[in-house]
Amino acid sequence: MVAEARRDPAWAVLGSIPFLGPVRVALILAIMRTPWRFRTKRNLWAYCGLAVVTHSSSDYELVDGQVVRRRRAPMTRGLNRNYSRELKDVFKGAATAATGRPGPLLDFYEGMVARGMREELARVTLTRKLTALTLRTRPRFGAFPPPAAPGPGTEGAGGSLKRAVRPATSPPRHSPNHRPPAGPEEASGRPQRPSLR
Fold first, then answer.
1. Which of 54, 63, 81, 170 could be disulfide-bonded to 74 (CB atoms 3.0-4.6 Å)?
2. Over the stretch 32-53, which tens digit does the pLDDT of each residue have?
3. 159-190: per-residue pLDDT in tens?
4. CA–CA separation, 153 vs 166, rounded Å?
């Protein structure tokens, strides 16, 4: 797994992040595949199980015969439960290791604890910091969209992704003039008769 991951161009940059060793980097590259799956760091946090879940109830009340929205913040219900277990384990392990050895991440963690944050919340924040750092360093490698192979309907390697996927001669699917391909009866020009069988 590590030998295959070393061939990825992002290997060197991800390996330079503190507490992400060869096995953790290989797992990140295998599970995340590409950073373009996640538009923002918050999308990656949800994928890793680090997104805060909030719920609200009884948002409106009756005041003097008028329905008025209550002014209170939604209540937090912990972290999301639908996530990649392996990826959360990678980042959580790296954050736990960072809290035990001197370095900039330990200073960040101790600063949060010194300001009054609970240790478990500070560790989650450190984990989120590592995830965002991983996502931030990856987009330097590889261009998106990937260059399309020259072919019919494309303008060479710089052609648009839509033209590479669908030739220019076919109408878009949402077009009002789009019809499925004609069947044998429709192509012959004869009126179709309902089958009596």
1. 54
2. 888 888 889 999 999 999 998 8
3. 433 333 444 444 445 545 555 555 555 555 55
4. 8
Residue with tokens 């390697």: 157
CA atoms of 65 and 8, how far apart (whole Å): 65
CA distances from 33 to 8, 87, 161 (A): 10, 12, 20
For residues 138 and 28, give the distance between their C-alpha atoms in angstroms, rounded to a whole number: 11
Q: Which of 183, 191, 49 is nearest to 128 (CA)?
A: 49
Structural contact between residues 45 and 80, judged by C-beta atoms closer than 8 angstroms:
no
Helix/strand/coil for 52: strand
Whether the Cβ atoms of residue 98 and residue 130 lie closer than 8 Å to each other: yes
Closest CA to 25 of 13, 39, 41: 13
